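Posted in: Structural Biology > Protein-Ligand Complexes

Title: Requesting predicted complex, D-xylitol-5-phosphate in pocket

I'd be grateful if someone could produce the 3D structure tokens for the following input. Sequence and ligand are given below.
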Amino acid sequence: MIELAFSILASDFAHLADEVKAAERGGGSIVHVDVMDGHFVPNITFGPPMVQALRPVTNLPLDCHLMIENPDEYIPAFAEAGADLISVHQEVCRHLHRTLQLIADHGALPGVVLNPATPVDTLIEVLPMVHYVLIMSVNPGFGGQKFIPFAVEKIAYLAEIRKKMGLNFRIEVDGGVAHDTVASVVQAGADMLVAGSAVFSKGKTEQNARKLLKLANAAAPDKKARKV
Ligand code: DX5
Ligand code: ZN
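-- Reply #1 --
Done. Output follows.
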């Protein structure tokens, strides 16, 4: 099943609850929360209080993408605030296995994220324990950046490894996913699509989400729902 994880980073913060509801009406089924610390990435966004504020607004799963150093210090607070899925960057985790275990121990589904320059092969050993792998298709830090085309090959390679290893983790893609790029990532094997500016623009959130999902489903290699 292809799902749209809409990134609230691009939404109108003054009307956040309405924005979330509009994206949900358009078919978005995961709320993607971009957490940035001003150290790992050159931007600062929000922390656990934002997750706590979102929790009563929607029943959709909250997907926290932690672009922060020392994620172990903050994972308990995000889980407690209501995060359902928590992903950490491979690049900041000295003990990635321990960090993924920590996420699971706090009752959230663990994910791992790769920057564009980080090879897929660095994850082989931990793949059996993740719920999802997030392939960045921009360098993290800002919304509205240009899609990096070689992310498509990384997604395809990861999908091939998943098949070879007989695993079921999901493949998420994040950055520059829009009407002109969505087909390529879906065809390569991505099934959790993060989109910020393509969803929250021109005051047409609901329509944008619906259109993006329609294009994604039309490009799906296997139209039968693939539940993982
Ligand atoms: C980038 C973030 C993305 C970003 C996506 O660091 O992780 O989730 O908000 O925004 P768009 O879809 O505009 O590229
Ligand atoms: Zn993100």
